[in-house]
Write a structure and sequence with these properties.
Four copies of one chain form a homotetramer. Chain A is an alpha/beta fold and 384 residues long. Chain A is 32% helix and 27% strand. The first copy, chain A, is globular. Chains A, B, C, D: Keywords: Oxidoreductase.
Chain lengths: 384, 384, 384, 384
C-alpha cells in the first residue's frame, strides 16, 4: 500500500453505523486493489471521552468533538456522515463547501427540502458525494440487477418489496431517537422503507412514479429512554409520544409499467431483518431475503426457482473474498460501498447512489406520506 | 355405509372444479365417519355425450343436460355448482327454492347484487348453503386459525396475503373464459383475490373494513380460443379484448386494527399456485404458502420460525388420513369441505363459509374495484 | 368405462396399506385412461365383522376370511397382498399358481429364500407380478430417474439416501408387530431401508454391489401391545423383547462406481417420513425429501440448486391430475403404481419393480445384516 | 487499547488461511473486550517480495523469510501456523520450545506420530496451544453444543455429518498441493473430514470410538499445476498421480452410544461448502448446514423444526456484532477463535480445541484409513 496515494477520512458518529463504517475503512484495502489508500484520520463525536474510547477501539488516529473542526481539517479529504438524519444536511453541505468528498448515511435527509439543498451543494462542489444505501452492495442484490440488465427477466410486471423487523413490537420498548420525528425524520418508512425503494429502483432500473399509502403508529406512547443514542437505553417511568410511523404500506407504479408493493414495519414478530424483494418479469423472476443474504432465487419460468448461492468468484464483489460456499455477512456490504466510493473519487466519476438518487427516494417517501394523509389517494412522485 | 341415510347429490359442471369435487364426493366416506352417505346421483352438463363420458369416468350414476331438470329431481338433495360465476346466482336461487342444499364454487357470484340475491334466497329457504373457499380446509390454514383463536399471536398487527400464478404470462396465451368479464366477472381479483380475502378473514377472525386498490391488465388483447371451456383451448389468428384484470393489489385495514396487504396476479413468473399468507401479531407470527401446503411456519418471537409439518393426528382433518409425514394434496381440501358440509346438513347448522361470508368477500372485491377506479382512494367496505 | 374389459381385484389386508391401496383402486380410473377397468371384487381379512366393515367403507363388493378362498375365486384376476411380510411368500406363490396377477407390498419377503421362491413362482406362472415400492411413483422421484437417463448428471459419484422416522423414539411405545422379527422380518432396515435401496437403484440405474453395515436396537424391551395389527395398540404392563433393529446404517459401492451411504432409522426425532435421496454426478446433482414430496432439487453445477415444483403437465404422472402448483399427496404414488400395473397386465409386459427387483433389494438387506454381524466387514451382494 | 498489554503475533503463510487469520487479528479488538491487545508483528513466507506485498496488504508490520527466525523473535509471543500440514509439527514444536504460544491450522498434522510429538511438546512447554477447527466458532454450532449441554436433546441416538464440496469434480482441475499426499497428508478425509469429526465431538460432547470406512479416488491423474500454492494455478500438459482420497465415507459409534455417519467429498456437484451436521436425540434434534451458516434448526419432537436465526444478542459470540437479523460470514469464525485463544493465553487456561483434541481427530482419521485398507472392517479408535 505504501506507494499508493493516501486519502484521509474523517467520520462523524460512532454508534451502530459508525462501527460498521469503521470496519469497512479498516479492511477494504486488504481485499480490494484500491486506487487510493484510505487513512482513518479523525473520528468526530460530542463527548471527548467516549469519542476517544471509540477511536481507540475502532482504529481512528485522532478525534474531534466539533464536526465543524473535523470538516475543516487538512488531513481529511473524505467526510463520512454516520449521524441521525437531522444533521445530515448541515454537515454534508458544509463538507462539500469545504471541498471534501462526502459519503452520507441514509435516508439522505429528514425532509425533501434538506435533500434538495444537499443535491444543490453537491452539484456546485468539486467533491464527490454518495448516499449509503448499502443493500445495493449485497452481492445477491447486485447480481439481481445484473440479471435484469442482461434481459433475463424480460418486461417487468411486478415488484414486491418488504422490510420487516420486530424490535419494537413490545409496547414497553423505550422511546429511542429512531421513534422521534425531530431526530429521525420518519419511522419505519424513512429508516427501512427508504432501503427497499432504493433497492427496487436499483434492481429494476425503473423509478417509482406514483404511490398510494397507509401508515400507522400502533403504540402511541412509550417509556422514555434514559439516553437515546442507540437502539436501547435505560428506561424510566415517564412516557412520551411516538411521533413517527411504526409501519408503512404502499402500492404504486414503476416508470416501466410494473406494479409495485412496499411494506416497511418494525412489528413483524419473528422477522429480524427481512429486507425482501421479489421481481416478476415476463421471462423470469428473482427473489431475495436479507435474512439469507448469500442467496438469490431465480426462475426462468418453468416449474422452479434456483437457489443461487452467491459466493462464486464471478458474482459481484465476491472474487475478493473467500472460496465458493464461504458466505459473507452484513458488514461486507459497507466494505463494497467504500470500495466503490474510493474508485469514484479516484476516477472523478460520480458514485452511485448519488445525492440525487437519495433525493428521489426522499420524494417517494414524501409522496407516501402525502397519500396516507389524503385518504390513500394515488399520489405522483415529484420529478427530480 | 349401508345403515346410513343416503343423500343424493347432483353436480353441475365437470371441468377442473367438477373433477375435483367428484374426487371429494367419491372418497369422503372412506376416510370420515359421516352422518350421511352421499350418493353421486346426477351430473349436469350441456353436451349429452361429453357429460355422459365425464359421468362414467368420475362416478356419477346419471346425467342431465338441463340444470333446471337436475335441480328438480327427487333423487337430488344436494346441488353442487361447479360452473363459471355467471350462472351461480340463477342456479343457486333455483336450487334453494326447490328445497335443496347448495354448495357453490367461489367467488359466490359475478356481482354484489347477484350475491345479495343468493344470500336472500338462502335466508328464506330450508336448505343449507355454502360457498366453496376450499383453502380454509387446508390443514395448515385451519391450524393457523386455531393458533390465532388460542391467542398465540396476541393482537394482530399485519396481514400479508398474496396469490401468485403465472399461467397467462405469455401474451399468446388465448382468451379463455376466465379472461372475459361477462363469464368470469373479474380476473385475478375475483378468481384468486377472493381466496386470499376469505383466508385472511378466516384465519384472523377479522373483516377487511377498507381498501385502497390498483388494478392492471398488462396484455390487452389475446388470441381467441377455439373453445373456452377450460384453461386451454385451440388458438386462432383472431384476437379479442381481455376484459378483466391481470393483477390486483390492495392495501387496507382489518376490523381489529391490523394493516393488510393483498396481491392477486397471474403474471408472477415461476409462481404456480403460491397462495401465501403471513400474519404478524404482538406475540407471534404465522406464514403459509400453498406451494408447500403441508407446512405452516410459526414464530413465538425470539429468533426463529418453526416449520410445522402439518401431518400430525391432532392437526385439523389429518387424523383421518395417513401417518405423520405422509402429506396430503390439493384435492383433500375439497374432501374436507364436503365432509364439513355434510355434517352441517345433517345437524341442521349453517356450514362455513356461508353465502353471507361469500357476499362479504364480494363486497371487498367491489370496494377494491371502486377504489381502483377512483385514484386508489381508500374505500370503506359496505356493511353486510 | 362401460366398454372396457373389467378385471376383478381381490385384496388381502385392510390396515394402513390396505386403506391406501383401496384409495388407488377406487380412483385410478377417474384420472388415467386405463386399458382395463378394475373391479374391487373381494377384500380378505381374518375377522368377518371387521373385514365387512372395512369393505363397506373402502368400497369392496365382497369379503373372504380365508385368503386361500380369495385366491381361488373366478371373479378375481388380480391379487393385491397388503399383509405383513411373513405371509407374502405363501400367498403370492399360491396366487401365481392359481393363474392370478399379483401385486405385493414391500419388502418382498422376510427372507431371501422366500423371495427366491416367489421369483421362481413368478417365472413359471402366466400372471404378472410386481412388488409395491411406491416411492418410485412419486413424480419427483420418477423425474429424477428421467434426469439421470437423459445424462444430466453425467457419471455418478455419490448416492446419499436416508429414511428417517421417529415414531418409536419414546421407550414406552408398545411392541407392535413391526418390532417383532417373526412377523416383520426386520426393523427399520427392512421396512424403510428397503425403500431407499430400491429408490437408489431405480434413480441411478445402478445396483448396490457391496456394503458395510452397522445396526442397533436402542430400546431392547417395550410394553406389550394389546393387539398388534397397526402402528398403535393398547398397552399392558408386561414387556417383551424388541427383536428387530431400530436403526441401520450402511455404506457401499454401486455397480457404476459410485459410493453410496444409506441410513434407516425410527429414532430421528422430528423427522416424520424423511425419505431422502441425493445423487451427485460429474455434471449435476439431484436431491429429494419426501416430506416435501412435490419438490425436486437439481443442480447443473454452478452455484445453485433449482427447486423444481414437480407439478407441471410434462412431469411424470402429473398431467392426469391438477394444474401447476396444485400438489399431490402420499396416496397418489399408489394410484400411479396401480395404473402402471394395469398397463403391464394389459400389454403382457413385466411391470417394474418386478419380484426379481424385490429379491435384489432383499439380497442387499441380507448383505447388510451379514456385514453388521461380521464387524462391519465389506460384504458383496449376492448376484441375482 | 493503549492501556492494554500488547502481545506480538507472528504468522507463517499468507494464502487462503493466512488471509483469513489476518482478518481476525486485525479486527478482533474492535469487537471484543480483550485482555491482551494483539500486535501484528511479523509475517513469515518464503519469498521476500511476495511476503512483503502480502504483509502490506494484510497489515503485518514486518516479514521473515525463514520461519525459524520468526519463531525466535522477541517481539513475537504468539506463533500462528497457516502452512500446509507437512510443516505443522516442525514449526509448532520449535515455537513451543522457544516459549511461544501456538495456534495451528487443522488438521493438526499429516500423521498421528507428528500429532503425538506436538502434543508432547505442548505438554512440556509453558505456552498455550490450540488447533484451529474454526467451525466450532460458528455461532450456530456453538449454540448447538449449548442445546446439547442443556439437555434439550436427551440421550443422543444419531449423528449425521457431511462435508460436501465440488471444486475438483472437473477431471481437468490441476494437481494442486491439496491433492498430493506428501504435502497435504490426506485428501477430503483430512482436509474437511477432520472438521466434521471435530464438530461432531464438540457438539455432542462424545468421542468417536470406532469406524468402518470406504475411501475412493475417482480421478487418478490430473494435469500438473504450474505452481501449487493456492487452490488454482497454471496448467501444463503433463499429468501426475493424485495421491490422496477424493472422498471418504465412514460409519461408526460414539462414546455415548450414538450411531454416526460421516462423509467428506470434493465431488458433490453443486455443494460448495456444505458442512452439515444433524443430531437426533431422544427429546430433540438439531440440524446445521454451513451454506446457511446463520441458521440452526431445532426440533423438540412434535411435527416440526424451528429455523433459529442465530443473530440474537444472547447467542454465542453474536452480542459483539450487529443487531438481530444482520448475519455474520465465514471469517467471523476465525475472529471468535482468536478471541478465545487470547483469553486463554491471558488467563493461563488451555484453549479448546487443544493439540490433544487435534490428535484425537487424527486418530479417528487414521482409523478410517486403516478400516478402508482392511475391507471396511470396524476399527477401534486408538485411545488418547
Amino acid at each position: 500500500m505504501s506507494d499508493k496515494t493516501t486519502i484521509g477520512v474523517g467520520m462523524i458518529g460512532y454508534a451502530f453505523m459508525g462501527r460498521v463504517h469503521s470496519q469497512a475503512w479498516r479492511n477494504v484495502g486488504a481485499f480490494f486493489d484500491l486506487p487510493l489508500a484510505p487513512r482513518m484520520a479523525v473520528l468526530g463525536g460530542r463527548s471527548k471521552e467516549h469519542t476517544a474510547a471509540a477511536a481507540a477501539r475502532l482504529g481512528w488516529a485522532d478525534v474531534e468533538t466539533d464536526w465543524r473542526e473535523l470538516v475543516r481539517r487538512d488531513d481529511v479529504q473524505i467526510v463520512d456522515i454516520c449521524t441521525p438524519g437531522d444533521s445530515h444536511a448541515e454537515i454534508a453541505v458544509a463538507a462539500l463547501r469545504a471541498g471534501k468528498h462526502v459519503i452520507c448515511e441514509k435516508p439522505l435527509a429528514n425532509t425533501v427540502a434538506e435533500a434538495e439543498a444537499m443535491v444543490a451543494a453537491a452539484a456546485s462542489a468539486p467533491g464527490r458525494s454518495m448516499v449509503a444505501f448499502n443493500y445495493r452492495r449485497v452481492p445477491a442484490v447486485a447480481l439481481a440487477r445484473r440479471y435484469v440488465q442482461e434481459g433475463r427477466l424480460g418486461e417487468i410486471r411486478h415488484v414486491r418489496a418488504q422490510y420487516l423487523q420486530d424490535w419494537i413490537v413490545d409496547p414497553e420498548f423505550p422511546l429511542v431517537w429512531r421513534l422521534q420525528k425531530d431526530k429521525a425524520g420518519a419511522g419505519a418508512l424513512g429508516d427501512i422503507g427508504s432501503h427497499i425503494v432504493d433497492a427496487a429502483e436499483f434492481v429494476t432500473g425503473q423509478h417509482v412514479v406514483g404511490v398510494s399509502g397507509l401508515m400507522e403508529t400502533f403504540v402511541k406512547e412509550r417509556p422514555l429512554a434514559g439516553e437515546s443514542a442507540g437502539l436501547g437505553g435505560c428506561r424510566t417511568e415517564e412516557r412520551g409520544a411516538v411521533t413517527v410511523d411504526d409501519a408503512a404500506l404502499f402500492i404504486g407504479r414503476m416508470s416501466g409499467g410494473a406494479l409495485a408493493s412496499f411494506e416497511a414495519t418494525r412489528f413483524a414478530t419473528g422477522r429480524k431483518n427481512a429486507m425482501r424483494i421479489e421481481i416478476n418479469g415476463q421471462l423470469g423472476s428473482l427473489a431475495f431475503d436479507f435474512e439469507s443474504m448469500n442467496e438469490l432465487w431465480f426462475s426462468a419460468g418453468g416449474g422452479g426457482f434456483e437457489r443461487i448461492l452467491v459466493t462464486e468468484p464471478d458474482h459481484p464483489y465476491v472474487g475478493a473474498w473467500w472460496p465458493p460456499g464461504h458466505g459473507l455477512g452484513y458488514e461486507h456490504t459497507f466494505t463494497h460501498e467504500i470500495k466503490d466510493f474510493l474508485e469514484a473519487v479516484a476516477t472523478g466519476t460520480d458514485p452511485e447512489p448519488s445525492f440525487a438518487d437519495g433525493l428521489r427516494v426522499q420524494r417517494v417517501l414524501a409522496a407516501v406520506e402525502a397519500s396516507a394523509a389524503d385518504g390513500s389517494r394515488y399520489t405522483t412522485v415529484e420529478d427530480s
